[in-house]
Amino acid sequence: MKPAPIREVMLRAAAEALRGRSRVEPNPTVGAAVVRDGEIIAVGHHDSYGGPHAEIAALRAAGAAAKGADLYVTLEPCSTTGKTPPCTEAVIAAGIGRLIYAQADPDPRHQGRARAILEAAGIEVVTDFAADCAGLLADFRRFLAYDRPVVVAKWAASLDGRIATRSGESRWITGEEARRVAHEERARAEAVLVGVGTVLADDPRLDARLVAGRAPRPVVLDSALRCPLDSVLVRERSPLVVTAAGRYEPERRLALEAAGAEVVEVPAAQLGRPEIEATLRLLAGRGVRRLMVEGGAEVLGAFFAAGLVDVVQHFSAPMVIGDAEARPAIAGPCLDSLASATRLLPVERRVLGDDLMQSFLVLHPERDGEE
Predict the structure, then answer these.
(1) Residues 327, 162: contact at Cβ < 8 Å?
(2) Residues with active-site annotation
(3) Phi, psi of 245 (to 5 degrees)
(4) Are 302 and 331 in contact (CB under 8 A)?
(5) ∠ CA(351), CA(356), CA(358), 5° rounding?
(6) Could you give phi then psi for residue 278, rounded to 5 degrees?
(7) 76 with 111: CB under 8 angstroms?
(8) Comparing C-alpha atoms, which of 317, 319, 321 is closest to residue 351?
(9) Which long-range contacts link 224-231 to residues 24+ away (Cβ below 8 Å)?
C-alpha cells in the first residue's frame, strides 16, 4: 500500500490539536495520529490541562495496532515527569516503529531529548513540516520567552474602527456567531481584563457563557475604586480589582472586599493609573498565562504603548458608524510617524456569518528578532 503523505497526516494531526483549545491552556495544543500500512488508524489530542497528552490519546485509540506503526505528533514528545509520565516511555512501550514530529518543544526541560531517548530504543525519529504547525505554539513560545502572561488584545468594531456610538451603545456590533467565537477565545484564558470605564459603561459579565469551558477570572483596572457594588462583576463574578497605591478612599476598598471582590494594590503609573507591568507580574504570580484585554480604548492604548500586547484578535462588522465622536477601539499616544506604528503578522482569518475575525501576532523586533 502506498505510504501516507507526511504532510497530509501532519495537517490532520494539527486539525486534531485544535480540538483541545480552551481546555489545555496554559499548555500548548497538540495533536497526534497513528498510521499503519499507509492509513490513519487513530488520532488523539491533548484535551485538558493536566490530562493525557496527545500521544497517549492516540496510542490508546490505536491499541495493539500501534505496534510497528508510525506516530505523527505536532510537537516533540515530552521526556520528563510532570503532571503526567513522560510520553517517550509510552511511545517505546507501544512498540512504535517510527515517530515523526513537526517541531521541537520550546521548553528547555524537554527540547531535543526525545530523539536521543527514542533512537536509543530503536525507534526511527523524523522532524518535518514545522511551518504547518507553528501557530499551535505561538502563545506557549511567548510565555516561555517573557515569563509573564501572553497578552491578547481583543475588540469588535465597525469598519471605521468604532466600538460604540457616542452614547455608548455597542450591543451588538457583531453577530451571534462572532460572539460565540469570542467566548471560545475567552475560555482559553485564565483572566480577562478591562478598565473601570468599561464596567461603568457596559456592566459586562466577562464570562464564556456561550460555550462549554472555563470562565476566565475578571480583572478590573480601577485606580480610584469606582467599580459599582451592584455591578454584575461584583455581585456574581468576584473580580480581582487592581488599583494604584494611594489613589482611593479606604472605605471603598472595605466595601468592595465585603461584597466579594479582591482588591490588590500595584504601583501607580502615569496619570495615577495602575502600572501595567506590575499588574502582569501580579497575574503571572496567580497562575495567569494567557490574559485577554478587552478595553476600553485607553486601557488597550496603554498596553500597546507599553509594548505589552502579543496577540491581536480583531472582530470586524460590516457597518459604518460614521461619527467622529463615536468611541474608537484604541486611544493611545500620538505617533510622530508610521514608522512608530505597531506592526502585526497575520496568522488567522475566519468568516463568521457576516463578520470577519482576524488574528495577528504583534511583532516586537527588538525582543523577538525577525519572525
Answers:
(1) yes
(2) 55
(3) -55, 130
(4) no
(5) 100
(6) -65, -35
(7) yes
(8) 317
(9) 224/196, 224/248, 224/249, 224/252, 225/249, 225/252, 225/253, 225/256, 225/263, 226/196, 226/200, 226/252, 227/196, 227/199, 227/256, 227/261, 228/199, 228/200, 228/203, 229/255, 229/256, 229/259, 231/199, 231/203
Give the containing element (helix H, strand E) for 258: helix 250-258
Q: Write the CB contacts of 68 (distance below 8 Å, at least 6 apart in sequence).
A: 36, 95, 96, 97
> Which cell numbers in the block locate residue 272?
495615577
293 pLDDT exceeds 80? yes
The tens digit of pLDDT for each residue in 90-134 reads 999 999 999 999 888 877 777 788 899 999 999 999 886 666 666
Q: Burial-class residue 131 by CB neighbours within 10 Å (0-12, 13-18, 19+).
A: exposed
DSSP state of 333: P
Q: Could you tell me the CA-to-CA distances from 22 to 64, 82, 84, 215 in Å, in that order?
A: 31, 21, 19, 10
**Is the CB of residue 266 less than 8 Å from the CB of residue 296?**
no
Q: Are the beta carbons of 44 and 58 closer than 8 angstroms?
A: yes
Q: What is the pLDDT of residues 213-271, one digit of tens each?
A: 778 999 999 999 999 999 999 999 999 999 988 788 999 999 999 999 999 999 998 77
C-alpha cell at 176: 451571534
Residue-wise pLDDT for 63-77, tens only, equals 999 999 999 999 899
